[in-house]
Design brief:
- A two-stranded antiparallel ribbon has the order 1-2.
- It has a domain of 72 residues.
- It is mainly alpha-helical and 155 residues long.
- α1 packs across α2 and α1 packs across α3.
- It contains five helices and two strands.
- Keywords: Membrane, Transmembrane, Transmembrane helix.
Length: 155
């Protein structure tokens, strides 16, 4: 009997966790490079420098790393503002968990305040329960119903 598992067509194209991580890293790097290039162009426009910024974002960022292209201070401010907007956006997207309001008096506190008999009893709502009685029936102490209202026999 062969112990190795052969791939079926059902799981042949299913992406694994490593593929999702790699794709996330590629998109994250592209977003970071795009944000840095946008901040570089905006910083040069705001500071009014006459140095031309290359149209290729990767070439522009390599020239900044080499020192042939200057990174203006306005670019840093634009990048910080963009990061702040992103953080506020992500905070707004996170779901908030609302907990149920906690009771003001727990059973443990009721036990300490009122004692065990009250803590284990049902809560008092102001209403009492009475067993339904047939109309016109009067119950005596021996719990046998009589027909008359005055407790006598109806005969």
């Amino acid at each position: 009997m062969n112990a190795t598992r052969t791939r079926t067509s059902a799981d042949a194209g299913a992406p694994g966790a490593s593929a999702t991580l790699q794709l996330s890293l590629v998109f994250g790097f592209a977003a970071l490079a795009g944000a840095a290039y946008g901040a570089l162009r905006a910083g040069h426009a705001l500071s009014g420098t006459e140095t031309p910024v290359p149209d290729n974002p990767f070439q522009a960022l390599i020239e900044v790393a080499d020192g042939t292209l200057v990174w203006p201070f306005a670019s840093t401010l634009v990048l910080i503002a963009a990061a702040a907007v992103l953080v506020l956006f992500l905070i707004g997207l996170t779901p908030t968990r609302r907990r149920a309001p906690r009771p003001t008096t727990t059973a443990n506190k009721r036990w300490l305040i009122d004692g065990p008999a009250v803590a284990l009893s049902a809560p008092v709502t102001g209403k009492t329960f009475a067993f339904p009685r047939p109309p016109g029936a009067v119950f005596s102490l021996d719990a046998t119903p009589t027909a008359g209202r005055d407790g006598g026999d109806a005969a």
